[in-house]
Amino acid sequence: MHLDWQIKHYSDLTLNEFHDIVALRIRVFIVEQNCPYQELDGKDKKAYHLLCRDGKGNIVATTRILPPGLPYTECAIGRVVTESSIRGKGIGHELMNFSVKFARQEFGTSSIIISAQKHLENYYRQHNFISTGNEYLEDGIPHVEMKLKQ
Questions:
Q1: CATH of residue 62
Q2: What is the pLDDT at residue 73?
Q3: pLDDT at 137 over 80
Q4: How far apart are CA 5 and CA 9, in angstroms?
């Protein structure tokens, strides 16, 4: 499968790109996971967005990369999502690798934090994130705060 990767700041996204990002996040986080929550939280406007497009130009995976200070003192990677049709093909791992690499280059830091769904803790461990011990419920789903090992 041919994939195209691109990182854009919110201010550089087209209306169609932002629409497709939010549509994918809603499809997975709200509909598929049956979890109603406030998807648009205002942080997208200050974030970089990693876009992964399939050969037809459809956005099939994305992350949101937040600068330090929003909401943590560290840089944060969130809204990590892949289309159900491409899961299990290693694309999620590429997504995280690109996100971490960009965050380090853009913000000059190796200090990156994520708020991970608890059932994905082992997945994020594969990318050198370790639990800070802070576990909590977010929108009714168990989460764990994880930080990239230095």
A1: 3.40.630.30
A2: 86
A3: yes
A4: 14
Q: How many domains does the chain have?
A: 1
117 lies in which domain range?
4-148
Give the CA-trace dihedral at 28, 59, 55, 125, to 10 degrees.
Answer: -60
Question: Left, alpha or beta for 132 (phi > 0: left; psi -120 to 50: alpha)?
Answer: alpha
Prediction pTM value? 0.92
Using alpha carbons, select from 10, 84, 89, 90 the residue that is nearest to residue 51: 10
Amino acid 128 reads N
Q: Give the angle 6-29-27 at the CA atoms, nearest 5°.
A: 75
Q: How far is CA 21 from CA 64, 73, 104, 117, in A?
A: 10, 25, 23, 20
Distances (CA, A) of 118 to 26, 31, 36, 63, 136: 20, 19, 18, 18, 9
pLDDT tens digits, 62-113: 999 999 988 888 899 999 999 999 999 999 999 999 999 999 999 987 689 9
